[in-house]
Amino acid sequence: MKTFKEINPSPRTLMTPGPVEADPRVLKAMSSHILGQFDPEFTDLMAETQEMARILFQTENKQTYCVDTTSRGGLEAVLTGAICPGDKVLIPAFGRFGYLLSEILERCGADITLLEREWGTVFDPEEIEEELKKGGYKAVACIHGETSTSMMQPMEELGKICKKYDALLIVDTVATMGGVDIPVDKWGIDGCIAGTQKCISAPSGSALITYNDKISKIVNERKKVEKGIRTSSDIDGTLPQIPSNYLDIAQLEDYWSPRHLNHHTEATSMQYAVHEALRCIMLEGLQERFARHALNDKALCAGLQAMGLKIFGDLKHKMPCVTAICIPEGIDGPTLRGQALRDFGIEMATSFGPLDGKIIRIGNMGYSSQKRNILFTLGAIEAVLIDNGVKVPAGEAVAAALQVYKNA
Ligand SMILES: *Cc1c(COP(=O)(O)O)cnc(C)c1O
């Protein structure tokens, strides 16, 4: 009989904007005994996850929980729940993921207005306000960290602006949550989505979401408990039912409430991962974690610039957890990335759409955001460039990064 190989992946340094290296404590937690989803030991763990997630999101929202899906499913769950067919939604798009929001919202039957910008820039909040002034908008859906371009949209004022025009603000913080300070309540964000495989540093497979009472009220007016499990106290809402069963946040709210009303079978091992990843974040401290990402970003950028490489985009608005470099003359993206992976075991990312072939993206996220990874990556990029005949000043990059750490 044919024998099949045991899974034995090579160690990698994951410097992409996701997935990144999981904290070893997370991987260990995932190999624990399986619990049933209604075991009190497990439901206690769910409650703790919610408590820690509220700290991470910096919110008081009761509705703060996980959806068994990747981050895009988290976006789809919140948008499909909050936005009814015909609702007017404004999407300021400044990269690939902005267009993903419109792709999801089209399928919700939303009446979409796209504001578009050149990739590598962000919106002035006034531009968004100009459009909202026209009136009738139910919501603004926006990306915080646009991973495809490495740009980060300023959010502080946007919540206030949305409130002024009575529009909900729904924000994708998949790439930034856990790496950058995002006080959800203070910024007036009504619905917020994060993913596990980026700065939260667990494997891909769960989406963390939070939304306030305004959204929860809409969701509950769309609620219809499944026939097989409904009781006489389950009254149907008056708004159109949420079109997705699996991502029906009206029912997921019940599932994550003390009622634990049956819906799907919870991915309990993945929940161990989320719980442990959040616990690691609590242990490190939010501000300490943000400072770690910022310092490693500073060192990475200093090293890249010392090598003579150009960092892409409007540097005032660069995400600290993603850096895009313009591919220098004399080499192409696949060669640079391919050799870094083959010779050094370092993975970096390509890019999409108008930036394809022009930039490569380096992640600095979660457990991967470490001094040794930054120095190793800089050394590897330099070596690959020199090996391919690109003229770069040898030895400058790592030295510049080390200087940043010394001065910190
Ligand atoms: C990675 C990413 C997503 C998609 O996440 P998946 O887990 O691949 O579904 C969505 N939005 C942003 C900003 C991202 O960086």
Automatic annotation (TrEMBL):
Cofactor(s) this protein requires: pyridoxal 5'-phosphate
Domain called Aminotransferase class V: residue spans: 37-219
Keywords on record: Aminotransferase, Pyridoxal phosphate, Transferase
Molecular function (Gene Ontology), one example: transaminase activity
Transferase keyword on record: yes
Pfam families reported for this sequence: Aminotran_5
InterPro entries: Aminotrans_V_dom (IPR000192), PyrdxlP-dep_Trfase (IPR015424), PyrdxlP-dep_Trfase_major (IPR015421), PyrdxlP-dep_Trfase_small (IPR015422), SP_NH2Trfase/AEP_transaminase (IPR024169)
Recorded family membership: Belongs to the class-V pyridoxal-phosphate-dependent aminotransferase family.
Protein name (database record): Alanine--glyoxylate aminotransferase family protein
